[in-house]
Amino acid sequence: MAQKVLVETLDDIDGTPAARTIPFALDGVTYEIDLSEVNAAALRDELARYISAGRRTGGRKVRVATGQPATTASDRERNQQIRAWANANGYEVSERGRLASEVIAAFEQAEIAEAEEPVKAARKRAPRKKVAVAKK
Fold first, then answer.
1. Over the stretch 86-100, which tens digit does the pLDDT of each residue have?
2. Which long-range contacts (CB under 8 A, 24 or more apart) does 5-14 make?
C-alpha cells in the first residue's frame, strides 16, 4: 500500500499558506518564522528602519525569491572540475568548502587558453619539407 504525505507550511501569524521561512536574530538569539509573502513584506517593512540605522556584522545575503537551492548540481560538478584542475596544476585546495577566487580565475583563464589552442593550431602552416639538392 502506498502513501502520499503532503506537508503544508502555514504562516505563523495568520495561518494562511506560508511562502517562506525567514530567519532573524535579536539579542543573540536566532529565530525562524514561516510567513506568507504579505507578512514577509510587512516584517521587512517593520525592520527596515532598524536595519538602515544598524551595522551589518556578518552573514551572507540570502536569495529570497528564487526558490532554488543556493548550490545546484551543475555548480557542484564545476567545483569538482576546478578542484581536479587545481590539484593537477599545483594549487592547494581542500576537498570541501569555498574555492579561492584566485583559483577560479586561474581555471577560467586556462579554459580560455585551451579553447583558443585549436584556433591557433589551425592558423599555423605545415612545416616545409626539405628537398635534397644534388650537387654537381
1. 999 988 888 888 888
2. 9/34, 10/34, 11/35, 11/36, 11/39, 13/39, 14/39
Number of folded domains in the chain? 2
27 shares a domain with 56: yes
Are residues 48 and 83 part of one domain?
no
pLDDT, mean over the chain: 81
Give the domain extent around 39.
Answer: 9-63
Q: Which residues contact 35 (CB under 8 A, 6 or more apart)?
A: 11, 12, 13, 18, 19, 20, 21, 22, 43
pTM (2 d.p.): 0.43
